[in-house]
Amino acid sequence: MVKKAKVKKTNDERILDQHNIAYQETQFNWLTNGKNALAEAEASGISSTSILKTIVLKGSDDARDYLVVCLPLEYEINLKKIANELGKKQIHLADNKNLIKITGYIHGANTPIGINVRKGFPIYFDERIKPFEQISVSAGKVGRSVRLKQEDLIKLVKGKYLKIE
After folding, report:
1. Are 146 and 13 in contact (CB under 8 A)?
2. Which pairing describes strands 123-126 and 91-93: parallel, antiparallel, or unpaired?
3. pTM for the complete prediction?
4. Residue 99: domain span
């Protein structure tokens, strides 16, 4: 009999456990597999539009003016639109080389769960995800995601919806 190796939980999965939020662990590697990963998700019955990427942005208001935007992987981000929606003069992508210092995560592992709980950055979600009861976000490790109820995640991270298109 072959023993199945137990997968070690990420810190973000532990946060969900502490808050009694049900989730499903999924493997999804957009960085390596790109569009093929979306096709795999669709084939397994998961709408690719319900799989979100987490983008860390820097506002121009002060040195610690960071915010996070979550939107479907296949969509582009419009920085001018976000700045306008939030009443900010300018918004830029956070420095990719310093992401680990800013958020505690490497590129590809950023997640609204840990960033909000540990750093307190405001979290915004693309309003185009509203139709989905379940959404997927990074579990804090590249290629690993959690699928959970949208309303549970929004409540946990005190998220707000934003018109991003």
Report:
1. yes
2. unpaired
3. 0.88
4. 11-162
